[in-house]
Amino acid sequence: MKDNNCAYCMEGELLDKFGIKICDLNVSKLVLFKEQSHLGRCVVAYNDHVSEIVNITPEQRNAFFDDVCRVSNALHKAFNPDKVNYGAYGDTGCHLHMHLVPKYKDGFEWGGTFEMNPQKKFLTDEEYKEIIEKIKANL
Fold this sequence. Notes:
Elements: H1 7-10, H2 12-16, E1 19-24, E2 28-33, E3 42-46, H3 58-79, E4 83-87, E5 97-103, H4 125-137
Antiparallel strand pairs: 1-2, 2-3, 3-5, 4-5
Helix pairs in contact: 3-4
């Protein structure tokens, strides 16, 4: 099931506004968040357009969290964060997804909740490519 107005469903221009698709996972897709105040920040978005974790079966839920865990492991290996924060929102974009936000003790917003889109740090295409390669190498 897809929603024509959903960036995670349609990808392309809608997704390009805030993210870069890295790859498909088992039951989800991995997207690098363009705003990189937190090095390695990304989103794991469930493949089907569902709003809530309760809208999928226990098996699908477990597979989704396996994808989240796989990405988290890759982020730890690639960037050595002190902590990865996890955020599951969707008040306005009702597509099941989880933000994975690496946090660093000497970095931006350590000790507090991450801002959804601080609009502080955007990178060059080459820098995005390097981050994506590091993540993919550790998946």
